């Protein structure tokens, strides 16, 4: 954040990028200019999660940050973890329940926790996180609602606010909402979901995003390094 206009985080979902492709994908992501790699999402492959993280770590010097969907997605092979609380929902399991189950593991493994207020925004479709968490997203015209939830995250002492339209969102988080949240709080804003090209990523940075998260846009891409480079240039400059 100090060196660049904004940060660029690349999300690997084990359900969508098989472990056998890690050796080819992850080095390209690093060379392309990503600032860190997130691992997690809606994966159900719990048995192979540790091995997946280990393979990622073996193939990159970038920080590897867990983006967990539950306490089962905590691995000693990560550098840090987004310690998420789903503030936009009212399901106690994802407000605090999973966090209580995960905290002892984070301490045991010595992973750096990064407290983060997670706010779902309507991305135009039923995302995996909406389905699994059984919560409703904030409407796209609910800028004030997003602002108040983001301020709550700040007052709770969280380090980041994450505005999420969902993996494969038809539309990303609105610029007006990003700008409204950014001007209302004093902690960095992460934006993810529906960012299918570098122009959209740059647009969200212009609106106020301190970090953008990209993942689904690259699924199946042979020239992933080139694509990551375009996003990194759009985010950093």
Features of the shown structure:
237 residues, alpha/beta, TIM Barrel, eight-stranded parallel barrel, 8 helices, 38% helix, globular
Short description:
By secondary structure, the chain is of the alpha/beta class. It is 38% helix and 19% strand.
User: Which band does the percent of strand residues land in?
Assistant: 15-25%
- Average pLDDT, to the nearest integer? 94
Instruction: Output the radius of gyration.
Output: 16 Å
Q: Give me the side-by-side strand order of the main sheet.
A: 1-2-3-4-5-6-7-8
Shape descriptor reads globular
Number of DSSP helical runs: 8
Amino- and carboxy-terminal Cα gap: 12 Å
Looking at the overall shape, the CATH architecture is Alpha-Beta Barrel
Number of E strands: 8
The CATH topology assignment is: TIM Barrel
Number of domains: 1
The first-level CATH class name: Alpha Beta
Order of helices and strands: EHEHEEHEHHEHEHEH
Q: Would you identify the CATH H-level superfamily?
A: FMN-linked oxidoreductases
Low-pLDDT sequence parts:
none
What class do helices, strands and sheet pairing give? alpha/beta
Main β-sheet, in a few words?
Answer: 8 strands, parallel, barrel
Helix fraction by DSSP (H/I, runs of at least 4): 25-40%
């Amino acid at each position: 954040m100090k060196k660049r206009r904004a940060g660029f985080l690349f999300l690997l979902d084990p359900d969508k990028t098989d472990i056998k492709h890690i050796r080819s994908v992850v080095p390209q992501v690093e060379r392309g200019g990503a600032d860190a790699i997130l691992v997690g999402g809606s994966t159900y492959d719990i048995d192979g999660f540790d091995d997946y993280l280990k393979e990622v770590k073996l193939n990159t010097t970038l920080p590897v940050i867990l983006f967990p969907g539950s306490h089962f997605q905590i691995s000693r092979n990560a550098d840090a973890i987004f310690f998420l609380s789903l503030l936009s929902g009212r399901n106690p399991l994802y407000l605090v329940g999973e966090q209580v189950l995960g905290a002892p593991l984070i301490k045991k493994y010595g992973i750096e926790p990064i407290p983060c207020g997670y706010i779902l925004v309507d991305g135009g479709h039923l995302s995996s996180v909406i389905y699994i968490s059984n919560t409703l997203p904030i409407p796209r015209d609910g800028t004030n609602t997003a602002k108040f939830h983001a301020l709550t995250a700040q007052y709770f002492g969280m380090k980041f606010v994450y505005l999420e339209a969902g993996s494969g969102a038809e539309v990303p988080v609105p610029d007006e909402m990003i700008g409204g949240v950014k001007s209302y709080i004093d902690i960095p804003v992460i934006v993810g979901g529906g960012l299918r090209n570098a122009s959209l990523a740059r647009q969200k940075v212009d609106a106020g995003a301190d970090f953008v998260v990209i993942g689904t846009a690259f699924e199946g891409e042979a020239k992933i390094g080139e694509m990551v480079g375009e996003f990194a240039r759009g985010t950093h400059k």
